[in-house]
Specification:
3 helices; alpha+beta; 31% helix; 5-stranded antiparallel β-sheet; Heat Shock Protein 90
Amino acid sequence: MTVIRTDARLFSPDPCSVSDARRWLRDVARPCLNDEEVDDLVLAGSELVTNALLHGQGDIEVRVVCEDSMFHLEVVDSAPWNPEQIQPSPSGTLSRGGRGLTIVATLASSWGVASRENIGGKRVWVTFDRSTCAKTTE
């Protein structure tokens, strides 16, 4: 695998950070992903940053790695507890939240959570498999 791009940014635990993270992810991803892939990445990143803001602790670090065969996103916070994917209600009732990780799981090739053993907290990661990181035009 060839690494094409890596980048990271720290966001404060502030509601404005979600829109800032979306803009930053879009800017980072545009050079190596097509428009549909950028949209999927930005949506997944927005959901993970929102979760870190609402349920995590401390600053939120967002990391991206673009390789020729995949695009990897990590969102890191200081909270020791792991997020849980909530299954949608079969009754079809509408709730105000709880769909973020379901959206992420639908968009991504894989996702998971890893503890940061020596420094505390966790990182939630998603991977998008792809055949090339060269931006395609139609």
